[in-house]
Amino acid sequence: MDYAAVVFLEILYMIAFLALTSAGLAVVFGMMRVINLAHGEFVMIGGYTTIFCNRAGLDIWFSMLVISPLVVGIIGLIVERLVIRHLYGRMIDTMLATWGLSLLMVGLVTLIFGNTAVSVTAPIQSYQVGAYQMGGYNLFIIAIGILVMLLLWLVLRYTRVGLVARGAMQNAEIASSLGYNPQRIYMWTFTAGAALSGLAGGVMAPLTGLLPSSGSLYIAKSFITVITGGAAIISGTLGSSIIFGTVNQIVSFGSTPVIGEIAMLALAIILLRLMPQGITGRFFRNST
Amino acid sequence: MSETVLDTRDLSMRFGGVQAVNSVNFSLRDRELRCLIGPNGAGKSTFFKCLTGQIRLDPSHGRVFIRGQDVSGWRAYEIVRLGVGIKTQVPSVMNGLNVEENLFLSARRVHPNRASAEAAVEEVMQQVSLQRIARRLVGELAHGQRQLVEIGLVLAQRPWLLLLDEPAAGITGAEADQLVRIIHEVNQKATIVVVDHDMQFVRMLGGQVTVLHQGAILREGPVDEVLADAKVREVYIGSRAK
Amino acid sequence: MTGHPTFGIGRIRWGWFIVGSLILLLLPAVTGTNTPTLLLIWALFALSLGLLWGFAGILSFGHAAYFGLGAYTYAIASMNVGESTGPLLLAIVLPAAVAAVIGAMMFYGRISDVYMGVITLVVTLILFKFMSATAGDAYRIGSARLGGFNGIPAFPILNVPGDASVTVYGTPFYYVVAVALMGCYLLCRWILGSYFGQVLIGIRENEARVELLGYSAPLYKTAIFTISAAMAGLAGCLFANWAEIVTPGVFSLGQSAEVIIWTIVGGLGTLAGPIAGAIVLGYLKLLLGQQTLIDNSLVLGAILVLVVLLLPSGLLPALTRWRERRDVARVSRRQASSTRRRRSQRGDA
User: What number is the ipTM of this complex?
Assistant: First the structure.
């Protein structure tokens, strides 16, 4: 019974982890069809921001929930203006350029912060579930994951900002003939996506030692979560997070975490082969 | 003797939420020259794509037979290999290569070696008057010239069945005259289906005409009869007045 | 019709090829062979991607998978067999077979560019993660322990076919690599000049149209993908012999990124471009490795971004265009002056 609860919580955690760390990429891909391969580095920088702000004396909650998104958002803005803006419509070129950016950012962070791992302790204690010790922080991540998804859905569905953004995504010309500037919309969308990635990075920071190369941990999983999810941001990301999170954890429990990850990756290939438009290209079309 | 070379049975296809092709039974005899006309939205292009394999058919969509062979569900390249030549609505040619290279790729598939393919390319260029632009990059040509290059691509394989979607779109009057001549010449040995809007072009071609309206065959017959038919006129004029 | 179609490949400039080959063959007289060997191995790897991407239009985001498979296959096979000829051949065939399966799955499934990029990337990731986790005695193939993150050291290196005691290393090995590179270059040229190659270029230009001419595009794409993987596998096998150890790093995202950068910087749509790109950028990477201030990633990343933004078709084509423009300017200047001369001779005002 305890074991079942632990497994359940672990699965929930994995789903939340995937959804949270993929949200930024999903927004950018879903809205603008831009594949940002520097997403992992955005997350990593979010983590570094939280850790160093915390070391400088700032409250950790404030650092991870406010400062990290802000900092990475600004970086996203700069990236959009300097690079992404010139490459709209050129998907492969965008992938290449953002891959270059990711290498560049890893290099810069290594230059500034060196190559030793930095970390910060989790601000929530662990708790007991029967005979098992569970990380309390994981619950926080599950909560944040749910919150972020909910917030995103509410904004996209029910606010004017969300409506305008979705309109521009569907048809840039109509949006501009209604007086909205598509360029501006893309710029803010990318920034928002970056900020979400930064938030994810900040929230994840207490979990492991952070290295400049940590971005690569996130990019692979986020990438396949988003692409397999398909065009719909919320339902797609949630859908694939649930599938992958569950498969990953169940296989992990049956064997090793590495096999779990490999199972997830292999499943991604199968799903993409069967549903090239992603899950929401086939099911739940027209959802947000 | 007229065998049936193309035959559809209850061909149906939904497209964009609309029943674009509605249970069509279309039949074509050997060496016919048939024009497929109809107002915008009549389903001509969708029907065409079902014939060419560009839209994949499954059993629910009906059947298409070419010379008695059931080709429903076949891919485009498999249908072409039967000896069918296809020209699409939007000129589809290889922009980064020159005219000669385009034609060579086409001819080479049906010739056993480079020399005979090159000879065939020469012939086609004469037939379609492309010699002057033989070395020009196709991407740099005018729309009308690209249409002719695509006709050349089709002819280079000497198909016995030609399916041409709007071959006259965007070409000059002189080019259109030439195209009519080419089509009549080819029609002596091959069966041809032309989908088009241009009434003048259809008249110049002569032959039989099939009128599609809202996905179904409205009228079939010789061109003058059909174009004089009251119902056909109503469908064209009426739909424009809406 | 004068001459046969060139399909944008151009003729082999035998002059340049001979000069290049001479430089390669005479190099050991002037420098050591250790670094040049590595650079040529990287050049071969880049050539394999250049063939696939530049001419068939297929961007494999995880081409390191086949490089790595070649390396590991050689290491494992040579440890089990003891001699190198069979393992060398296997290192070419196995990556090719894997590519054939994955390629067929993708191309017959009519997967688009982007999703193909994702799938090829994920394949590399799977291999990387798997190989990194194979530490311990349980993971072995025959007498070869996979070694996890530490990899497989101490396997037999290349020997003269038939005589296992005569090993090939140092300068003779450099020549093996150089000949392999030149041979593969000529092979690529031959492929591209052939009917098969011409169809591929047509597919890159307009796949739908080529299918409407009766060609099965998936078949051709799978075939070239397989050939490219075989070449990458050969490069990987040679790399294993150079490094004398294989680690999961051969499958890394970094390795995949590097080969893409070399190819795109050198020039997409040429064969010499990727070779040049690999040699130049590879040498740059080795130089940067000597110091710790500027990280290799930083430079490579910056280069990639700049190239994509400013020179989307790479350095070599840009140089060619610059040269063409200069030649055109020269010709028109000559024409202008001869027109002036003729005019003055005729006595025009």
Answer: 0.91
